[in-house]
Every structure is written in structure tokens, then in C-alpha cells.
Amino acid sequence: YVRGSPAPKITKFTMGDTKSKFPYQALLISQEEAQIRHNALEAARVASNRVLMTRLGNSYLLRVVPYPHTILRENKMIFGAHADRLQDGMRKAFGKPVGTAARVKPNQTIIEIGVNENALEVAKEALERGQDKLPIPCRIVIGKAPD
User: Quick one: which H or E segment has residue 120?
Assistant: First the structure.
């Protein structure tokens, strides 16, 4: 049982024009199972959104799909002179909450972007920028949006 958890850094999961329907979508899909920290998800969202906003204005829809539920803990260790008086090693090593992470499975969508046909290259570039911020290999899939 973990008492309290830090709030995730990522606060907005949906950005852009939420009212419109877009005929095409670009997906950033994970290739491995991993835990992605909340600050990496936020960095990917900011990087992708910046490209979309400067090039397309407000004619896109960006969604970050996974939510960081997993609480990360750290058993802080102090090194240096007389550190042995302040720590107990692995006794009571449950740790204090330091952040949150999202568990991602292979072939799971991380970011999805809805755009019109003329903006597909911009969406692809935005996902490439977001992919650079994530700790796992991903692939980009572009296709028609499901109705």
C-alpha cells in the first residue's frame, strides 16, 4: 500500500479541435513492452503538439492514450562518510513515491493524431518528434480514421 502518489506531470491528454471529425489518423505505436514515465509522456506530447500548432493552427486532434497509473518508488540511499548511520540498507525498503508511469504493451497506441489529407506529412513529422522523447522503439502508422 502506497500512501499518496505524486500527480502526473501530464495534465492535458486531448488537444486541438475536439469537435471536428478528421478523415485520416496517424498513430505512434509501441514495439516493446515498457513503462513510460509521466515526464516522458509529457515531453512527447509537447514536442508533437508544437509541430502541429505551428503548421496547422487548430485543424488537428492530438490524443495521448496511456494514463500513468503505476506509482514509482525509490529507496533513497546516502553515500559518503558516516552514511551508515542514516540508512538501513534493505530493511523496510518499500521506498517513497517519486513519480508515475504508464505501462505499455507491444502494438499499443501511445499517441494518435487526427488530421485532414493535406496535413498527413505534418502529422508524421510531429510523431517523429514525439517518438524521440520516448524510451522505447515505436513505429508510425498512417491510415483512414475509423468511423
Answer: helix 120-131
